[in-house]
Design a protein that fits this description.
alpha+beta, 4-stranded antiparallel beta sheet
Length: 426
């Protein structure tokens, strides 16, 4: 947390004074406050936020599935996080769910075609989960991340979220441009200078420079061009950053309008949400600022590509996936259902996390909090003699966590080793 103005770079403070004028002191005071803590529930897994076990929650104005917590608990200790029942996310970013929900009715008749949505810079997955919360079940979602280590985190988070109609890729954005005009909606939450994260991230403070802003702005335009090439005529693009400066925000909105010839979309958000407007531009832009909204910095704008949707129906999912595999590195296709063990194919523990999981396939065992935490540490469990032998689904508060194979003396833990938590929890 930034406790004094002096910890912020001088150049950044000067920039913000020029941007905000007489509102700068309000911004400065907000930057001295602790960041908000907020969570979002998985609407396909959770119907009542009270089941998470947290008290004092208050709703996020712009997201029906989002809630603020009065303080930050040890989220790792809650098995429901690992079950994909909720996700820890900054409240500002939750606007994606509302934006996508507003875009859906403007798309062509989804009863005869499967919408294809791309989150082009998706890690760690928060905005992808917001998109998934907002779309109908037949929508096919592609989540991409260029950096391999971040792609691995993205895969874990989205597999836990459990939406089955998803592909996770680890490719350069230029690879999507080569696919042609395939997607109905593309989200570009672009890599940026991170000024909006300064209140909670010391790295964002230490790395700040105008040179970084220029570097990011150039990269963002390359990514936006790639996204434009992959977007269908009549399709929608959401552009966002977690930074404050005009170069990466309003000036890129101008680039989308003037160079890519896309049409900006007015969202007409309620005034009582407190979301700021764009600075010195006629293009509809939306700014989440810490002195205006409860959350970190975020800039967002929405565009539609000129032209009409093609007359032909959307490509079938199998053919679509084959096309993706021909140009991209696909690291996950849907929720894993089986895994190889030697020459055998056995059920994948991740399969029970899918929102379309058939609960009748296996017997189930309900775990206590301590047992669930032990399972998440990848420790063996022991059950009483009356518990059936074989593959069992282990649950916490009714939500599947994974599989065990119960044998005579113990239940072998099938939870993915790369996911195991490494702390002993109270």
């Amino acid at each position: 947390m930034i406790s004094t103005e002096e910890k912020l770079p001088d150049g950044f403070c000067k920039q913000m004074k020029e941007l905000l004028g007489n509102k700068y002191e309000d911004f400065r005071d907000a930057m001295r406050k602790a960041p908000e803590t907020s969570i979002k529930i998985n609407l396909r897994k959770c119907t009542n936020v009270d089941e998470l076990g947290y008290t004092g929650l208050t709703p996020v104005k712009w997201c029906d599935s989002g809630f603020y917590l009065p303080e930050r608990p040890l989220f790792t200790a809650n098995p429901l996080l690992h079950a994909g029942v909720f996700y820890v996310q900054d409240a500002s970013s939750m606007i994606y769910e509302e934006v996508v929900r507003r875009i859906m009715p403007m798309m062509y008749d989804t009863s005869s075609a499967t919408l294809k949505i791309l989150d082009l810079c998706a890690a760690p997955g928060g905005k992808t989960t917001s998109i998934i919360n907002a779309v109908p079940d037949n929508t096919f979602v592609v989540a991409n991340e260029y950096v391999p280590s971040r792609a691995s985190i993205l895969k874990e988070n989205l597999v836990k979220w459990g939406y089955p109609n998803i592909a996770i890729t680890n490719s350069a954005t230029s690879c999507f441009a080569k696919l042609g005009e395939l997607f109905d909606l593309i989200a570009v939450d672009a890599p940026c200078s991170g000024e909006g994260m300064m209140r909670k991230d010391d790295t964002a403070v230490s790395q700040w420079s105008t040179g970084l802003q220029n570097q990011c702005a150039g990269l963002q335009r390359e990514i936006l061009h790639d996204a434009f090439c992959a977007l269908k005529p009549g399709g929608f693009m959401i552009y966002s950053t977690c930074t404050f400066n005009r170069k990466e925000n309003e000036e890129n909105a101008e680039y989308i309008t003037n160079e890519l010839k896309m049409v900006p979309l007015e969202l007409d958000l309620p005034e009582n949400w407190g979301i700021g407007k764009g600075l010195d531009k006629d293009i509809p832009c939306y700014r989440f600022m810490p002195h205006l909204t409860r959350g970190e910095g975020l800039f967002l704008t929405v565009f539609r590509k000129e032209g009409d949707y093609p007359d032909a129906l959307s490509i079938h999912n199998d053919a679509f996936l084959s096309l993706l595999k021909s140009k991209l590195k696909v690291i996950c296709n849907g929720i894993p259902r089986t895994t190889d063990k030697g020459k055998l194919s056995i059920p994948a523990s991740e399969s029970v996390l899918a929102t379309d999981f058939d609960a009748s396939m296996f017997e189930t065992v309900d775990l206590s909090l301590e047992e669930a935490q032990s399972y998440l540490r990848h420790e063996a469990l022991r059950f009483s003699q009356e518990i059936p032998k074989g593959y069992l689904v282990v649950k916490y508060l009714g939500h599947p966590l994974g599989l065990v194979k119960n044998i005579s003396s113990r239940a072998n833990n099938m939870y993915p080793k790369s996911w195991k938590i490494r702390m002993h929890l109270q």
